[in-house]
Amino acid sequence: NVPEPQDDFQKGLQTLKTKINDWKPNVLVASSRGGKYAAELIGTAVWRGPTVLISAMSTSSCIIPNLPVVLAHGKNDGTNPIDRVREDIDLGTKSLVQLIEFEDDHHLGILQSDSSLLPKLIRNALDLEKNKISEPPPTSATKQGSKPSASRMRNALFAQITAKK
Question: Cα(first)–Cα(last) distance of the chain, in Å?
Fold first, then answer.
């Protein structure tokens, strides 16, 4: 694992914040190091919607109460051990967190060999949103987390976070 320069991380994070604000995606998808980006977006309340984490780092910072999260993880992941991820799921709201384990390693090649799996993971995250506890109406400072329109749901934009640009 090569450490990522902090300024590259900050630049990437700013790009993601801008894209989320512009596109208003319905689901955030993060893989591997992208979990660090997701954790920062969630931790700063930039993102509060359905999230899919694929062999992601920083899962403990991504799983917070009342946030729908689907985790796809390989049982043989040597980079992010599955035991740690299993412990992390207890940090969230039980009805909003789903861990799907695969007989695979960190790269989760199964998602490439079976093209139906990623859309299923995304659908699962969207379905978990239905279990979300109602929150008070957003104030002007929190409008970023408002519910997407039906047309946006039909034309969902998926912000996939990866460590590479």
Answer: 17
